[in-house]
Design brief:
2 copies of one chain form a homodimer. Chain A is α/β, with parallel strands linked by helices. The first copy, chain A, contains 17 helices and 16 strands. In chain A, helix 12 links the parallel strand 8 and strand 9. In chain A, helix 1 crosses helix 3 and helix 8 crosses helix 14. Chain A is globular, with a radius of gyration of 27 Å. The interface between A and B is large, with 41 and 41 residues.
Chain lengths: 528, 528
């Protein structure tokens, strides 16, 4: 029952904040009774249990229960708990009944159970919240909530999840900070200067103007060993990984090892290409790459490549220690394998110099994959691969006979954006802004929940907040109830990895500046 | 021998024009002798035969032979024909020998056979052309062209093909006419108005703003039955076809029938997706779609879809006649198959109203694929699919969990470009321009080669010039020799289709206005 409740709460995604928590909970409960999702006689979870599930203070729930009992929606009896009150149901006139209940200041929308769409229901929730805010101690509606007794049962589909009020999901930069004016300037200059042939079918590796500027930038900023001929521009990391999966499979590679934690999507792309994805174990120092060499007859023994977030493990946040960086490259050298380096947020390191790309250790065995999705915006679909010489032709051929994918004007605009220094300025500005947010996050956690350890904060756009064992799911439900979109570390755990860590992955770069403090406040509320 | 020669000419892609033809031919012959590709004693083709192969007047070739005999490169004896002269070869000092031959005004580049790169060789060709232009009746070089006698044989790789001077290959619009200012205006307005979320990960179907405007446009301009929810934006026709191949394969479709003539690339994408590509026969009325229904136990009997250029067959240029349009849709309805309609240049029809899209006949059985590659520019990588309702989710899922491919700002810019009317204006302007070129092409052919039939001229960006049986290859070699890039119909013939047509596919939209007349002149020279 508690689970069912929590699910209901999670699905509703009400936008509840601060003092409005109790009102919102009451409204959601009323709506659940009204719509029939909570049938008469149903026993509700204890206030303590629901409070834990929803990340609210117990008193908030107890007060809401008490008020709803006073309003006649619920009944409370010692020994029998809190239940949904039984009511006589009016017949045949649901609309009139609804109309009768609707006051002057209340719209009819969302007040009739039958035929209510998901969207209408969400509206009803909000309209209700407004109402209870104004006069929520008023008399309970009477007669009781209507369920029409027509031949067709009322639609009882779950409400469509509304957009959460706060977003701390990792993986997206602050989109409001996209440098529109600077980008537009670069685009205009690039479009004006572009040779006519740029509008035709192009080199599958991408525009040479971009590859030339990128080579200079990657060498300088990420320690990548690179020449323009080694670069293949692609439409995002996912596109690059798809191309690599195809090329490796064509070469007869059977397995690509992956880290214990990462995006399921990435492993899925590899399996989609016909590759196995054996999992490298993880310890407190990071990914145990030494298991590759020790793989022997096990699944790791047949890995022909390994996918790694070496500079900043996603999502756990550590940098691979130097001995392991060396070890994974040594493994690749010894076996003819490849390291696929997913350098998704390498530009963002706060407290010291960035950890250089692994690729510099051996450009012939490491495939470097970088992207503008974190440093600029995912919507641009701009990314790049720096390839060992032996792979350039195969990857280019996998991309196509010509460039079927990447827009030439966009590539030229990005080249101009890089060459003009606008990219460096933007990254620098965002680094300052994200570091400030990271510091505020660390401070808020230290103040409000000092026992919560924050890790992975040296770099990147997200941090991991450790949770007491076994509390991750409940915390996520509480987050949903609070209108906070956030993920748990176990959502990134490979299925075969034992569940040993509980924690939240907090993407502090995601909200715009205007929403950051309320998002942080929502996070604070759900912390232990 | 004639073949070998012609190949050599085709590979060299010299930029030869008007009065420079003889000088260029002489220089190419000298270079071939010098590099050792034409060995001493080799008999050259007759001047008549080489002239036919290269599309030159016979006198031009005869004069060039005579001059080279006078210069000592060739010998000519009655009954023995024209041969490469025998010369003593200097030993061990190839460089010094070359230096000795180099006059004050001649650079040493390209004069030494050994170690010459392809690029160097091309340069040598151009440098030579300049030289002979100034003093081509000068004395022959002596001693004879050097081949070093070191242990390593000299590199005899073919020269890298230079860019042809004239381009009439089909498939590309006039890139110089890309409406930069109008596009930039649309891009600026779109980027300024874009909501922040547009810079994030988006709907795999593409931006709703674009799908909404596209739906309106396609209904109006192409008679497509469409709602925005049925559209999936993609990065070009190739991307769309890849997605369809994947979806059809997942549905258990084994074969997708293709037309007798078409792009090998497209059939290759389908076979790459694991699909067979049985070929529909062709007659004077177009593709014999009725063979689908009659397929029975043959390869066409297991086709689950057919790929068609119904409005304007590529490359042959006809519109599928109404009874066959109906028949292919009837086949799809009866069998649950799909028609993949490649509407690559549907906007360009000159003499009457455009032929509406086949899709309108049955939106649940026809997948409509459109593109901005011909109407605007391939470099934008913007295309769209209008899907039967039953396929929308599968195609969107094949594209990705989110939009991994198409740039959101580009999509918004294109939406703005469409909505503002700039697209209609551009298409209208280009239609006038292309029609003028088409008329000039038809007139030039009628004047210079009245027996040559021009077909496929009612629409599109290319025409087919019928050639006398068996002369296509020679004509293509002549085109190459004249620095004209153009393709023959047999380059688009599916391998299993018997060779019954000879012709040139002339993409008259391809050159910029400034190069159009000289391209037409080059074409005129090679016509029978």
């Amino acid at each position: 029952m508690a689970n069912e409740w929590a699910t209901f709460g999670a699905d509703l995604h009400l936008e509840l904040r601060g003092t409005r928590l109790r009102a919102g909970l009451m409204d959601a409960l009323r709506e659940a009774v009204r719509s029939g999702r909570l049938e008469a006689g149903t026993r509700l979870p204890s206030s303590r249990s629901l409070a834990a599930d929803l990340g609210m203070a117990r008193n908030t729930v107890a007060d809401a229960y008490a008020e709803l009992v006073a309003e006649g929606w619920l009944t409370a009896r010692q020994g029998s708990g809190t239940r949904v009150a039984r009511r006589a149901e009016p017949r045949d006139e649901p609309r009139r009944a609804g109309a009768g209940r609707t006051g002057a200041g209340r719209t009819g929308a969302g007040r009739t159970a039958a035929g209510r769409t998901g969207a209408g229901r969400a509206e009803g929730g909000r309209a209700g919240a407004g109402r209870t805010g104004a006069g929520r101690t008023g008399p309970p509606p009477a007669p009781a909530p209507a369920r029409p007794a027509s031949a067709d049962p009322p639609t009882l589909s779950l409400p469509r999840p509304a957009r959460p009020a706060h977003n701390l999901k990792a993986g997206t930069p602050d989109l409001a900070s996209f440098p529109r004016a600077e980008w537009l300037k670069a685009y205009r200059r690039a479009l004006t200067a572009a040779p006519n042939e740029a509008f035709g079918y192009g080199d599958p590796r991408g525009r040479v103007e971009l590859r030339t500027v990128l080579a200079e930038y990657l060498a300088r900023a990420r320690g990548v060993y690179v020449r323009p001929e080694r670069i293949v521009v692609c439409a995002g990391f996912v596109h690059g990984l798809m191309l690599m999966g195809q090329v490796l499979r064509n070469r007869g590679v059977r397995d690509v090892a992956v880290e214990s934690y990462g995006l399921g999507l990435h492993a899925g792309l590899l399996t989609g290409a016909g590759l196995g994805t054996p999992v490298l174990p993880f310890d407190e120092r990071g990914t145990r790459v030494e298991e590759l060499a020790a793989g022997g007859a096990g699944p790791l023994g047949s890995a022909g490549a390994v996918l790694m977030t070496a500079a900043h493990q996603f999502p756990l946040g550590g940098a691979l220690p130097p001995d392991r960086r060396a070890a994974v490259v040594d493994w690749a050298r010894a076996t003819g394998g490849f390291v696929l380096e997913d350098d998704y947020d390498g530009e963002f390191r706060y407290d010291r110099q960035p950890v250089g790309a692994l690729q510099g250790l051996d450009p012939e065995r490491v495939v470097y994959l970088g992207t503008a999705s974190k440093s600029l915006a995912p919507g641009l679909r701009l990314a790049w691969m720096v390839l060992p010489e032996s792979l350039v032709d195969e990857v280019a051929a996998a991309k196509g006979a010509v460039d079927w994918v990447s827009s030439a004007p966009d590539q030229l605009a990005f080249a101009e954006f890089l060459a003009s220094g606008a990219y460096d300025r933007h990254v620098r500005a965002m680094r300052l802004r994200y570091r400030r947010r990271r510091d505020q996050l660390v401070a808020a956690v230290a103040e409000h929940s000092p026992e919560t350890r924050v890790s992975g904060i040296a770099a990147g756009l997200h941090a991991v907040l450790a949770l007491p064992p076994g509390t991750e799911q409940a915390t996520l439900r509480a987050a949903a109830w609070n209108g906070l979109a956030v993920q748990g570390v176990n959502q990134f755990r490979r299925p075969t990895v034992p569940e040993t860590l509980d924690g939240l992955v907090v993407g502090y770069a995601t909200p715009p500046d205007s929403a950051w403090h309320s998002a942080l406040e929502a996070l604070r509320r759900i912390l232990p």
